[in-house]
Design a protein that fits this description.
The chain is built from 6 helices and 19 strands. With about 350 residues, it is of the alpha+beta class. The longest helix is centred in the C-terminal third of the chain and has 33 residues, at about 255-285. The relative contact order is 0.11.
Length: about 350
């Protein structure tokens, strides 16, 4: 029996081949189709090929499921049922397709393999990481630490902004990460710092009850002062001028001094410090780290820590806080104090007018 075409003739080229065998007066023919099955598409980012030859892919949990599509060459050839054996993932529309759901994170990867008669035709590990939905507005937490501060001369209160721009006042920031288009991206979630502040009396008498009887004696007043003299002195001490500034001549109000310093802290935080931190957040989140075979299996905490060091977060924070202080100081010229006094003007007028004369 002499074959019309040998095995080497049809195993090296694609398409349908006819093999005929003849023995004396009898002959028989068989048709054989040689195909190649390769990857047509996969809806994930190709990270690389590891040392074992496995292809590594990654995506996040915000897109659609990962769809793997194989193709047969030459096209149009119908494969026998169950010709391809799959492991990992779930069945697609045909044996040429496989799906990996993104509904569950796969931060260690999921193996997806396809074989024909034990021979590998597709071998991949697919990672599903968190997506950009972790992004959220930065929360800046100001711990207003009431206590001992360096008071300017003759000042009843002070906010120590310098205390806010030292590394020792900043708690470890809360950072998060996500995956997008072949990169680890990072989110600054929460920043907490301490803002020292304090108030003092300078020996002035605190008017806590305008109807007190006997009325408390003001600083520097004679012990023989009458009730009327004390009340008049308190009124003159507390009633503000057109700019909202009282004389503080023997008396003061601790509650309104508190209000004055709180105004300064709100002003500092809302108009200077917090906006700089938002800019820091944007700068922080603009960067990223390329995902490759060397880091794709790293612990998320290590990934975030590495980026924090690369970004030099501590120094960038100090720079941003310093800019906030420079802006605040540069716009000082009495403006901050003017607005703080005007904010408390109504309160001082109301307190002074409530003292029965």
């Amino acid at each position: 029996m002499t074959p019309a075409m040998g095995p080497s003739d049809f195993t090296t080229s694609l398409g349908s081949k006819s093999l005929t065998a003849t023995a004396e007066t009898a002959s028989d023919s068989v048709s054989v189709t040689v195909v190649e099955i390769t990857l047509s598409s996969i809806s994930a980012d190709h990270i690389g090929t590891d040392e074992s030859g496995q292809e590594i892919y990654a995506t996040n949990d915000e897109g659609g499921d990962v769809n793997i599509v194989l193709q047969v060459n030459p096209s149009g050839v119908s494969l026998p049922a169950n010709y391809i054996s799959w492991t990992g993932g779930s069945a697609g529309a045909s044996q040429l397709e496989r799906t990996v759901s993104v509904s569950t994170l796969q931060t260690s990867g999921v193996d997806v393999k396809a074989e024909v008669d034990g021979a590998s035709i597709f071998d991949a590990k697919i990672y599903i990481f968190p997506g950009p939905d972790v992004n959220e507005d930065l929360e800046v937490v100001t711990n207003r630490s009431f206590g001992s501060v360096n008071f300017p001369p003759n000042s009843l209160g002070a906010v120590d902004r310098n205390g806010a721009i030292t590394a020792s006042t900043v708690s470890q920031p809360v950072l998060d990460y996500y995956y997008e288009s072949g990169e680890w991206k990072f989110v600054l979630v929460r920043l907490e710092y301490t803002l020292p502040w304090g108030v003092r009396s300078l020996g002035l008498t605190d008017v806590t009850d305008p109807n007190a009887n006997p009325f408390p004696l003001g600083l520097g007043m004679s012990v023989f002062s009458t009730e009327s003299e004390k009340r008049n002195q308190a009124f003159l001490s507390l009633y503000p001028n057109a700019q909202g500034i009282p004389l503080f001549y023997g008396y003061y109000s601790s509650s309104l001094v508190f209000q004055h310093e709180i105004f300064h802290m709100d002003d500092w935080s809302n108009n200077y410090f917090d906006p700089e931190m938002v800019d820091l957040e944007s700068d922080f989140e603009d960067g990223g780290i390329d995902v490759d075979l060397s880091n794709i299996d790293d612990d998320p905490a290590d990934i975030v820590s590495e980026y924090g060091q690369v970004f030099d977060f501590s120094q960038k924070y100090l720079d941003a806080a310093g800019r906030a202080d420079d802006d605040y100081t540069g716009n000082q010229s009495g403006v901050h104090e003017d607005r703080a006094w005007l904010d408390g003007k109504d309160g001082y007028e109301a307190l002074a007018n409530s003292i029965p004369l």
